[in-house]
Amino acid sequence: MNKTVITLLLIMGSFAIQAQELKWETDINKAIKVSNKTKKPMLLFFTGSDWCGWCIRLQKEVLRTPEFATWANKNVVLVELDFPRKNLQSEEIKAQNNGMQQAFGVRGYPTVYFATAKIKEGKPSFTGIGSTGYVAGGPAAFLAVADGILKTK
Question: How far apart are CA 86 and CA 79, in angstroms?
């Protein structure tokens, strides 16, 4: 009986971890408000979600794992800035993402920036903390790099 209960609890616990849903903001102004309210920096994920092989690999190996979800919920506000080739986006999102790409000087994908921001005179003003891209080695390797960047803030 005890073994059955323990097994059942372990299975339910693993489903709970896997079901831990991450909230990826796509509106930078909303993300800034959440960041300032929670006092967490933003993780800005510049991606080509439907064509960039390294972006898809980063999503699969790191960003969609329970380890990353647990870490992200504690440490950052997630922001996806996507540059798809096939998937449709509103003109507003396209313009916002292009502006963010220029502001951060992104030249390749995936690029992950950590930043804080304030709204000044109706426009965002960013303070960069650091950046990375794809990191081989799964969630542990990526999170070690991310923690190193966040410790410098």
Answer: 20
- What tokens appear for 30 in the block? 């909303």
CA distances from 145 to 108, 124, 133 (A): 19, 26, 10
CA–CA dist 24, 53 (Å, integer): 20
φ and ψ at residue 118, rounded to 5 degrees? -130, 155
Rounded to two decimals, what is the model's pTM?
0.86
* pLDDT tens, position by position, 86-101: 999 999 999 999 999 9
Q: For residue range 20-44, list pLDDT tens digits in order.
A: 689 999 999 999 999 999 999 999 9
